[in-house]
Amino acid sequence: MRLTIKKSSANQAKMFNCKINILLFTKITITILSAMTVLLSCSTSPETPLRGNQPDSLVRIIEKRIAEKKEIESFREKELPPDFWQKIKNYYPVIRKYAKRYGFDWRLIVAQILKESRFKENARSHVGAIGLMQIMPGTAQDIRREMDIEFIANNPRENITAGIYHLYKQVKRFPNAQPEERIKLALAAYNCGAGRIYDAQNIAVFLHMDPNTWEAVKYCLQKLTREDWRLHLEVWELGVPPHGHFYGYRQTIEYVEDIMKNYHILKKMF
Fold it and tell me: pTM for the full model?
């Protein structure tokens, strides 16, 4: 998919708004005309009686389109930084290249960058994560050896490359999950570490839940605190999660669900 980006970010944002509005208006118009054609054909055909729920179905479709338009407008206002279009112009090629190489939709990577750093190249977390993809120093060292790239902390394009590769490594940790579930589990592992996800999966198995689904893992991440020590005694011989107690589950759950929500909105936009 090719993006055409004007020099002026402000003009481009206006043009994009117009494009989205025109697209949604066109969809609504086509829907109305199609529905009217069906209604007229049904009303004039003696063999096909008019169904009573067709007008209601049309209203629901129109309401859905309007809701989508409002959702996109809200997303643009609340989630996109003012210089978003310039950032896309700068980084789209590298995002597209490495997303394709590792089997991701480039819009998923954009959603992840928005969550990690809001496209701030110099972003640094309180625990030391660096750059657009918020890569931890230890992770950066491993990736340097595996990919032969040197400037993950200082070069935004290398930071993106390293982040996509790191997400790909997390996906490979969950081969038995369905595609979308693999993405969610990989995002969770990217955020809190694969060990936490493995511990949650162990609890899921004990509770007779499917350990390869995000819903099960999301529930069981909340069971990794010290307060659930009785459960831990039943799951593990030593009575402690192998990767330690975990209290950051709210952040991880929010991380995964925000990215997936924004990803689905971006798919409607692009």
Answer: 0.79
